[in-house]
Design a protein that fits this description.
It is built from 12 helices and 12 strands. It is α/β, with parallel strands linked by helices. Bound molecules: beta-D-fucofuranose (GYE).
């Protein structure tokens, strides 16, 4: 256990002009100090993820949490990690905004002997030992779940036989593993089907306002007679922005006919939109990763090794799979 908190207490004591009582120092020495670099607060998923981390890394559980919100900028995450290294934290928990560009700073953490746990998105580094474990979702698998539902649904409704199936694709933050994985499944499916056409592909940055703006732009420039069969959004907040723009431009959303809207996360609001038929199919992405992360740190604290890759169970939902009961039970 390291001494950030103890030093802080000593400094406070010095500033107050008195020596820290010995029992305070020895108690505080037991805190495990976590430096956590969060992407931002761009989506409902992200807010739930931050809350899940704050709920486990509490003083009552023996932790001191230094939480840094990078406001969607990798350079802020790099600065935060360097600060954590300087503060000599016990562990770094990193939700990396994008996959690339981490080699130097993670090498610095490695050289300082601070284990790095990746949560949510992944990184691509030349030396795999630069992080201890990755805890999160398999984004590529999520997109395969969506594509499997789509192919079956198109067969059932007869739409598979249409001469064309026109797709608008709203991507997440470019280079984020959630974007890379969710895009991969769609692009493979497009390759496989001769009648599937990608008519627009834009970045919605995982946010509702950005997606509303880009969708409004796309719909305003497409010819009025343009048939749109699907809008593939890479998270719920993007879907909300896309639905608003579609409705304002007079498009009907629907599985049988109209625009099919696909989304990821399955937050309570997303599931409700799916139950109401606004989102046609939604794939779960569970943000409640706090307990798995804390468990991993406990393993490491006890000298045990942690699994390098820890995926959380996830499934997809169509409208008919969703009940009020499920909505009530949803924690995010
Ligand atoms: O789907 C989205 C968030 O990386 C899994 O990022 C995460 C994604 C999530 O902003 O809502």
């Amino acid at each position: 256990m390291k001494k950030y908190y103890t030093r802080f207490m000593l400094l406070l004591a010095l500033l107050a002009g008195c020596a820290a009582p010995p029992d305070v120092v020895s108690d505080e020495e037991d805190y495990i100090v976590i430096g956590l670099s969060q992407v931002g607060a761009e989506s409902d998923w992200r807010i739930a993820n931050s809350e899940s981390m704050k709920a486990v890394f509490t003083e009552e559980n023996g932790y001191e949490l230094i939480f840094d919100d990078a406001r969607q900028k990798q350079e802020n995450q790099i600065i935060a990690i360097r600060n954590f290294i300087q503060q000599d934290v016990d562990y770094i928990v990193l939700m990396p905004i994008v996959e690339d560009g981490w080699d130097s700073v993670l090498q610095e953490a490695y050289d300082a002997g601070i284990p790095v746990i990746l949560v949510d998105r992944d990184v691509s580094v030349s030396n795999p030992r630069l992080y201890t474990s990755h805890i999160g979702s398999n984004f590529y698998r999520e997109s395969l779940i969506a594509m499997e539902w789509l192919e079956n649904s198109l067969t059932e409704t007869g739409r598979a036989a249409d001469a064309s199936f026109n797709i608008i694709h709203i991507q997440g933050t470019p280079g984020a593993s959630a974007q890379v994985g969710r895009t991969a499944g769609l692009e493979q499916a497009i390759e496989k089907h001769d009648n599937w056409n990608l008519i627009a592909q834009e970045n919605g940055d995982f946010t509702r306002p950005k997606t509303y703006e880009v969708m409004d732009g796309i719909l305003s420039t497409l010819p009025p007679e343009q048939k749109i069969d699907m809008v593939y959004c890479e998270n719920d907040n993007e879907a909300f922005g896309a639905i608003q723009a579609l409705e304002e431009h007079g498009y009907q959303i629907g599985v049988e006919k109209g625009v099919i809207v696909i989304s990821f996360d399955a937050t309570r609001n997303g599931l409700r939109a799916c139950m109401e038929g606004k989102i046609s199919f939604i794939v779960e992405c569970n943000p409640l990763l706090g307990e798995m992360t804390e468990q991993t740190i406990q393993y490491l604290e006890h000298g045990e090794s942690a699994a390098r890759q820890q995926y959380i169970y996830e499934r997809g939902y169509a409208s008919e799979d969703i009940t009020e009961e499920l909505l009530k039970m949803r924690e995010y």
